[in-house]
Design goal:
The chain is α+β, with helices and mostly antiparallel strands. It is about 40% helix and about 15% strand. The strands form two sheets. An eleven-stranded mixed beta sheet has the order 1-2-3-4-7-8-9-10-11-12-13, with helices on both faces. A six-stranded antiparallel beta sheet has the order 14-5-6-15-16-17.
């Protein structure tokens, strides 16, 4: 019996070793081979507190608090320089990102499971990333923080972070929580008849993650010069414009949960920015790449004086254009072409999400303007109201401005002008960059001078000086405390006056009353919980799925 048990244990141990060996072989990605590694010897110089140079490249913070970066060279060289210049910022971004994940998933054992799951899920990720971008990401990873080496090797981490948006979007897609909105107008609808584009990038991973916005200016040896708005350590594009006047913005659409690795959508956006000069060329690039998730790639073209939407799913790619006489196009989070008109996921998305509502609101704002200037575009992107200017509460996903945007951008491609919002959200001033001037003056900058066009700065939103802004910040702070009390295993009770202060901070928001309903449900007070759930349903609930959840909780209280 002892020999049999020993034999079984040895067999089990052998199988375990084989499994672990296969797992390690499958998930560990070795960096690409680099012929010329001389750029690793380059040294960063600190000119002053917020200004660094490295050869002809530099990183600096402007007067509005936004970081600006100029990088040139070959792929690996660019990555090395980018990594060295932004080393501290990249570590702050990674800390903020990991902290946000730990807040969303507090279970350490489940986090460990997710770590291994993602590693195995993305085991073939490098096969879908071009050799150029593998080398660039590898160069960036050489300066990555040591703090998270327990999560994975640096190159593997940086590669996987470029797919984090896609996986996160797909997993939370069953209740769409990201609501980016973009629009464009041209000809008679534009104040000067030239193409005008505006977009909000409503990607939220915590206030800390959004704090260090980065406006990047890249001058690659291959392809076109381009600018994009990003965060340190990330080479993908979610909002950008190249020297040919091609603009790219990404807008999430409804997706099934992916079954395997594919090209991260931000790297498709980056490839378009670097190598396309027309909408057809952008479409050709998008069509040849297999992606994780469904996305609307909103492309503007200075030479064609119009914009179009590349509607892409993991299996199909379609180009959606409007009649040239229409002179405007809106890009929400659902597809609009005949190809996807009867698609089940797309129809369900329009019913359940806030996408259709935001499209109607944007259309309403456009209809109010005979022509649209860049100042009008900023006002629309900052709009917090619902249909017919209804008060739907601060931070409602149905608003164009949900007070969560990582950044907001306005483009005038014909003039190569790009306005980027400064913190907070899209409420700070929009700084204007002239790409023609930038790429002429940026190489070898040695003094910390402003490179933005001060005369074209869009002033900060007056909302920042109102009581409503103070109330919204109070709302976020009080909300966090109440949710912590609700999640706690102990029955923590709110102090006297806390409940009233919370309601006063955002009285028209359904979320205010939903949170209080959950709190009183945890306390065992079904009557009060039901009262707040009923109040929540009298407000403008952002999505059909959220309304269904509130009704479900209400029904449980009334049993």
């Amino acid at each position: 019996m002892f020999k049999k048990i020993k034999r079984l244990l040895l067999i089990f141990l052998g199988l375990l070793i084989l499994f672990l060996g296969y797992f390690a072989w499958a998930v560990i990605k070795f960096p690409p081979k680099i012929a010329d590694r001389s750029s690793e010897q380059l040294q960063r110089k600190q000119v002053n507190k917020d200004f660094y140079t490295l050869g002809r490249n530099w990183l600096k913070k402007n007067q509005a608090g936004t970081w600006e970066l100029y990088v040139e060279g070959d792929d690996f060289e660019r990555g090395v320089i980018y990594g060295k210049l932004t080393k501290e910022l990249a570590e702050q971004q990674e800390v903020a990102f990991i902290n946000q994940i730990q807040e969303l998933v507090p279970s350490r054992s489940y986090l460990n499971f997710l770590k291994y799951f993602v590693a195995y899920f993305n085991r073939n990720l490098d096969e879908y990333v071009t050799a150029e971008y593998q080398r660039e990401i590898y160069g960036v990873s050489l300066s990555a923080s040591d703090l998270f080496d327990d999560i994975g090797p640096k190159y593997q981490r940086m590669l996987n972070y470029h797919a984090a948006h896609d996986i996160g979007h797909a997993l939370q897609d069953k209740n769409m929580t990201v609501g980016c909105t973009a629009f464009s107008c041209w000809n008679n609808k534009s104040a000067d008849h030239s193409l005008l584009i505006g977009r909000n990038f409503d990607f939220y991973s915590g206030d800390e993650f959004a704090k260090n916005k980065l406006v990047c200016f890249f001058n690659p040896k291959k392809g076109y010069k381009f600018a994009f708005v990003s965060w340190a350590g990330f080479i993908g594009c979610v909002s950008g414009m190249n020297e040919q006047g091609i603009t790219v913005t990404l807008n999430a659409a409804k997706s099934d949960i992916p079954t395997g690795a594919a090209t991260p959508i931000s790297l498709v956006g980056r490839e378009i920015l670097q190598y396309a000069k027309t909408i057809d060329e952008a479409y050709a690039i998008a069509a040849k790449r297999k992606t994780f998730v469904s996305e609307s790639i909103f492309v503007g073209s200075a030479s064609e004086n119009c914009a179009a939407i590349i509607e892409k799913t993991p299996t199909r790619t379609n180009l959606y254009k409007v009649d040239q006489q229409t002179n405007e196009i809106i890009c929400p989070n659902h597809y609009q072409s005949e190809v996807f008109k009867m698609d089940y996921d797309n129809m369900k998305n329009q019913v359940e999400s806030s996408s259709l509502y935001r499209k109607f609101r944007m259309q309403q704002l456009l209809n109010e303007q005979p022509t649209v200037s860049y100042l009008d575009a900023a006002r629309m992107l900052r709009d917090q109201k619902g249909m017919n200017n209804a008060d739907i509460g601060l931070g409602n996903e149905k608003a164009l401005n949900q007070l969560i945007a990582h950044h907001s951008v306005i483009f005038k491609p014909a003039e190569r002008l790009m306005w980027v919002s400064s913190n907070p959200f899209q409420l700070g001033e929009y700084d204007c960059y002239d790409l023609n001037r930038i790429f002429k003056e940026a190489p070898g900058l040695t003094e910390q001078k402003e490179i933005k066009e001060d005369a074209l700065t869009i002033p900060a939103d007056p909302f920042l000086k109102t009581q409503a802004w103070i109330n919204f910040n109070n709302f976020k702070m009080l909300k966090h405390h109440i949710q912590e009390c609700t999640r706690s295993a102990s029955k923590f009770k709110l102090r006297q006056g806390f409940e009233e202060a919370f309601i006063a901070s955002n009285p028209q928001s359904y979320f205010t009353y939903w949170i209080l309903g959950d709190y009183y449900g945890k306390q065992g007070d079904k009557n009060k919980a039901a009262h707040y759930y009923q109040l929540a349903l009298t407000k403008e609930v952002a999505t059909g799925k959220e309304a269904a959840k509130i009704r479900e909780h209400l029904a449980a209280c009334l049993r």
